[in-house]
Amino acid sequence: MNTSTTGGLLLVGQPNVGKSVLFHALTGRYVMVSNYPGTTVEVSRGNACSLGNCPVLDTPGVISLPSRTGDEHATTRALLSEKDVVLLQVGDAKNLRRTLQLTALFAEMGQPMVLAVNMVDEAEARGAHIDTIALTTELGLPAVATVATQGKGIPELEAELKKAPVPRFKLEYPAEIEQALDKMAALFPADVLAPRALGLLFLAGDNELEIWLAGCISADHLGALRGHRDLLQQSFTEPLSAILQQTRMDFADRVASRVMRTAVQTTSGLAQRLGFLSVHPFWGWPVLFAVLYGIYWLVGEFGAGTLVDLLEEQLFGELINPWFVGVVEGLVPWSWLRDLLVGEYGLWTMGMTYALALILPIVTTFFIAFSILEDSGYFARLTVLSNRSFKALGLNGRAVLPMILGLGCVTMATLTTRILHTRRERLLVTFLLALAVPCSAQLGVVMGILAGISFSATLIWFGVVLLVLVTVGWLANRLMPGKRIPLMTELSPLRLPVPGNVLLKTWARLKWYLVEVIPLFLIGAFLLFTLDRLGILPWLVNATEPLVTGWLGLPKEAAAAFLMGFLRRDFGATGLFAMSSALSAQQMVVGLVTLTLFMPCFANLLMIIKEHGLLRAMLMLAMVTPLAFFIGGLLHHALTLLGWGV
Amino acid sequence: MPSTQLLSNIPAHSDARVVGFAADIEEGLRERLLAYGLIPGQIVRVMAQRPLTLLQIDYTELALEKELAACVLVKKQA
After folding, report:
1. Terminus of chain B with fewer CB atoms < 10 Å: N or C?
2. Residue B25 structural domain
3. CA distance A112 to chain B (A)
4. pTM, full prediction
């Protein structure tokens, strides 16, 4: 083949096999890479310089085809809509048979194809050796051994991709199926995938394919296809999909036994033992608390304590701000502009100082901690430990992934709910995310503030938010029709994170913060300034006094913080931080709990509308915000009764 | 000849060979079990039964809830 004449390269394969790492290696474009299934939920695009600048598409992993979840459907759609592509299947060397089951399907699609047998280092460490030369012969398509994270095998892979042929591969299915495939072939559109591959997917009952077919062939043809399928089903007692899968499994077994040599593994490594402890019904909990304390120390103590002190008080407070205020006052004759820039709600004194001196060090340390955990593979293990807790919420442990991702960015996490199996699960998780999961920026600020009060303050905040999450989740589960899906998931191995990837990922997230969050912050500061000037802010502060002071027990000026919270919850929290000298420990905890539960940020609101529609989004909003104030007030009265932090 | 049992009843730290699925298993579920490598003939190692059924299949680890493990029929290996 010649890459310049094709539609590009399509990366496909099972979840968590390293497609995104290869994508990065080929294109130089960074996409989020982590050690758990479901990091990629949408197709990403880039260009490979070493392959004549041909486009490269990274797809979400599919456990098997036909696709069953929203992210898997995206892969099926990419296979159907991207014309003249070269397929690059990425497979896990540790699980060659599963890889080959998919290969048997991809190789009949009529597209040039190469197989990357990835993570051969981990397979070797476990005593499995794969002979890729024999595999190439068996499959009739090039198979290349790679270790994508270390760049091993990438040049060989690129060389094969440049000359990739359409595989001479044909798996023989039972005779009745072969006859049906022949009859059906003429009914499919001829310009996409090979009709035989479409037939195989259609017989297995791929919904996404049927939707797509309904849009491009006549209803008569579609009806005829369904007729063939129903007729064929009558020749078998087992479902067609099971028979097709069995044929491919037999094939995979046969090939794997010929190309793989295994040695008996003698001892289990430290990573394996630690991995086992982390899902142990008893030891799993100490491990979890150790991890949480580690994050608290890095983000709360070091980031929010040491670094913020250094930046906010010393660098900004003593050096930059006095100098900048001096410059502005010397140069700007108009008092309103001076106020806009360096006044109480000034763009520089409030907006940039908050964003750079307060939030930036906190989110940076949080992003580092988060990236290390992501790459270690611990999150997938947490699915097992947390499964029982999620059961009460009508969810399974799989939901822990979007929830934890929400601690990074709730908006992205809302998108990640696509990995869940039912619409019901998606709605439940989206709602809980909007209500009670603080995103990194907010969590950072909150932890920073709480660490400055006391550890018990942190515990109260955490306990209340968790209690709300569980209670509301439990109620929502009761009220919402539908049933829960039991958990089944692959556990990625624990690994030592690669420092390069941790830094890259931290940087990618920081860039998001700098580009998307800081401008919003400035808009927020500008809005507050304008409202203050127009006399609306003082009026609002007085109007909300019964709620803010009467019910929550906060000084009435805290209304400005809640106003900022409408834009992003972390801005609100930062607003509270700025008034910390005027607040008691109790007031701070009450304010932070209220803000944590407060409405989702604007970007997340848009995402909820996009994924679930305006009506559902508004319903969620109408439930979340009053609930936040209600809980905040309850907490205030409870803590006052107990005499805590008055 | 060992008797056929449910995967959920196999004690931790022992091996078992998959022989089939419960008669009333949902088709979608069977497909997923197969896709994850629980294939008749396959020998799996049961690592734990609590909090979930943890299996090692070839070189990968799989976690599944009891009620799913109870849909898989196995024979315990000596």
Report:
1. N
2. 4-76
3. 25
4. 0.79
